[in-house]
Design goal:
Elements lengths: L3 H4 L10 H10 L1 E5 L2 E7 L7 E5 L7 H18 L7 E7 L8 H15 L15
Parallel strand pairs: 3-4
Antiparallel strand pairs: 1-2, 2-4
Helix pairs in contact: 3-4
Length: 131
Amino acid sequence: MPDARRLRLGRSSRLAQSRDFARVRQAGERLAQGCLIANWHKLPPGAEPKLGVVTSKKIGGAVERSRARRLLRESFRLHRHDLAQPVEIVLVARNSIAGKKFADVEKDYLTALKRAGLWRTADSGGGMTNS
């Protein structure tokens, strides 16, 4: 079993300040896929991938927004070691995320990564999980 610290998504792996979100949106690329919109900015090799999540009140109440954030963070956490290169990524939850199961959100996330060319294809060894 892998080291538990390797699996955690600590504060150093998160975008927290609005200027970081703005930089990714302005300088990066954008792709809409299913229940999410991915904005990303490539980082130099050796950097740690970082994630930011945006959920608006259009999704629903606090419970629905929190669940959407958890689903998006978990998708990133499980597959961040399979990225082709380090990126700062901002995932924006769309209204359709409300009521979705983890497997559906994860599928949209992985499809977005593949379409964006951010997924390590040859030797990833990773895959979708059954949740």
